[in-house]
Amino acid sequence: MTWTAPEVTRILGPLAAGERETLTAFLAFYRTTLLAKCAGLTGEQLAERTVQPSGLTLLGLIRHMAKVERTWFRERFAGLSMPPMYDRDKGKDADFEDLAPADAAADYARLVEEMRLADEAVADASLDDTFTHQGTVHSLRLVHVHMIAEYARHIGHADLLRERLDGVTGA
Predict the structure, then answer these.
(1) Model confidence at 31, in pLDDT bands (50, 70, 90)?
(2) Total domains present in the chain
(3) pLDDT digits (tens, 9 = 90+) for 3-22
(4) Using one digit for the tens of pLDDT, what is the confidence trace for 90-126?
(5) I need a surface site. Which of 63, 64, 131, 153 has the fewest CB within 10 A?
(6) Domain for residue 28, yes or no?
């Protein structure tokens, strides 16, 4: 049986709320939007390079965002020391390039789990809490804004990739 990415209900947040609730809701919206862009596709479709000459794929975006979630929330903010998510011997862009359609279900599950673990890592933190990365102080607030921007950027890519795969637009 061939695995296909599950259907996802996008999470819509409140239109009038406090800062933390708004940032968290927008991040959840963009996270679920990326997953929705992948819904109904097989591992082979997710790994297909559809916008030449770019090598970008939906599976690459899934893998990349899992790495970004882990890096910003758990490694940088929470200060956890973790092994690299992808094989460094395959290059710094292994998340985008070292794709195996047969591993798509595991890669998808990893992203969903990293989202959950990221939320768990910051659940009791204040947006004003800080950490230092490369000699610069960052706040949890900045991490949320950065992650929203990162997802929004890549969802634009996902729109084009999905449309080229099967003509699906929107969502």
Answers:
(1) very high
(2) 1
(3) 999 999 998 888 899 999 99
(4) 777 888 988 999 999 999 999 999 999 999 999 999 9
(5) 153
(6) no
Query: How far is Cα 155 from Cα 85, in angstroms, rounded to an integer?
Result: 22
Between the alpha carbon of residue 92 and those of residues 5, 16, 73, 81, 126, the distances in Å are: 26, 40, 20, 18, 32
Q: Is residue 86 part of a domain?
A: yes
Q: Which residues pair with 138 in a beta bridge?
A: 131
Q: Is residue 107 part of a domain?
A: yes
2: in domain = no
Q: Give the mean pLDDT of 54-83.
A: 96
pTM above 0.85, yes or no: yes
| CATH number of residue 68's parent domain | 1.20.120.450
Q: Work out the average pLDDT over 135-159.
A: 97
Range of the domain at 67: 42-166
**Cβ atoms 38, 146 nearer than 8 A:** no
User: What's the one-letter identity of residue 50?
Assistant: T
d(CA 88, CA 84): 7
Q: Which residues contact 35 (CB under 8 A, 6 or more apart)?
A: 5, 8, 108, 111, 112
Task: Provide DSSP, 20-73.
Answer: HHHHHHHHHHHHHHHHHHHTT-BHHHHT---STT----HHHHHHHHHHHHIIII
Query: Residue 170's pLDDT is what?
Result: 76
